[in-house]
Amino acid sequence: MREFIEKISKLEHLTYKEMVEVSKLIFNEKTESQQIIDFLVALSKKGETSQEVAGLATVMKSFALDLQAPEGNYLDNCGTGGDGLNSFNISTTSAFVMAGAGVSIVKHGNRKITSAAGSSDVLEALGIQTSISRDATMDLLEQEGLTFLYAPNVHPKLKRIGEIRQQIGKPTIFNMVGPLTNPVSLKTQYTGINRANFTMEYAEVLRILGRERAIVVCGADGMDEASLAGKNSFVLLDKGDLIPFTLTAEDVGLSYAPVSAIRGGDANANAAIMRSLLKGERNAYFDTVLFNAGVGFYANGVVGSIQEGIKLATDTILSGKALKKLEAVIEFSKKIAQQEAV
Fold first, then answer.
1. Record-annotated residues binding anthranilate 2 (predicted)?
2. Alpha-carbon dihedral of residues 145, 91, 113, 210, nearest 10 degrees?
């Protein structure tokens, strides 16, 4: 471990193979915590590369639970978080919209870290259990074409790493690997990061990891979602090509709105926002979900443009299909809870 620390302390990048080797040491219980801390801090100071992020993601996924998901064209729309903008749960809401239109969603998520309510927090406020069995998780996917994976449940080796990250108290490479380590094999992905200068590298990571098609976004003000508040930087990965582009809300027929218009609250407040939105209440929350679900549809390849995706998202909400999907998942969760009680 020490040789890797010395190398990156000299601002030398690690190869993918070297990062795989050091990542295995990071997850080895015998490796001293201080060495892991020294490595993560030094790597953060140097600045991570696509090879390094991909190497860690590969190893971390290899240690995840095998959920034995059937073969399928699954999409995850989990972002890295960390933008500090306290928006409502955009990607979680968008997941119900996309699933309502027939896209198979396997969404990776966690509790609040930088937001007032993380994905798992708001799901539980809605009455959806996040700590269900592996079989129940896959049953939900089979029945509803949508399931949620609570990261600590599927990554058992993360407990110690979480304690080490708390000791560091600053962002590390682990802040970037969450969306890359879904235990279910993904063909397509839509993910957001809060570093505009890393979108191309992050898309390169997705290419290394074998995604067939994906979109990375860094929104206006560094949001890890597509934002109504200005220019959004995207990179499309399509059949090995990386294609950068930018869009504003106005470019796709939506209206500008400041970030303050989509502020979230605690889990109960965000659950209320989600319900109102899925019932068709038109406002900045609604348009933000249209934008992100539209990009998600385009990333999945079910539409030929983001504008078509936004139209599909609008139709899915206003027809009641997205709300119906939410209610179906809540009902499934209630049945699981009753079975476990018995």
1. 165
2. 70
pLDDT tens across 170-218, in order? 889 998 998 999 999 999 999 999 999 999 999 999 999 999 999 999 9
What are the pLDDT digits (tens) for 98-146? 999 999 999 987 654 444 566 778 999 999 988 888 899 999 999 999 9
Detail the residues annotated as belonging to a binding site for 5-phospho-alpha-D-ribose 1-diphosphate: 79, 82-83, 87, 89-92, 107-115, 119
Query: pLDDT tens for residues 265-323?
Result: 899 999 999 999 999 999 999 999 999 999 999 999 999 999 999 999 999 999 999 99
Mean pLDDT computed over every residue of the chain: 93
Domains and CATH numbers, the chain: 74-155+184-327 (3.40.1030.10)
Annotated binding site for anthranilate: 79, 110, 165
Instruction: Please give the annotated binding residues for Mg(2+), written as ranges.
Output: 91, 224-225
Annotated binding residues, written as ranges, equal 79, 82-83, 87, 89-92, 107-115, 119, 165, 224-225
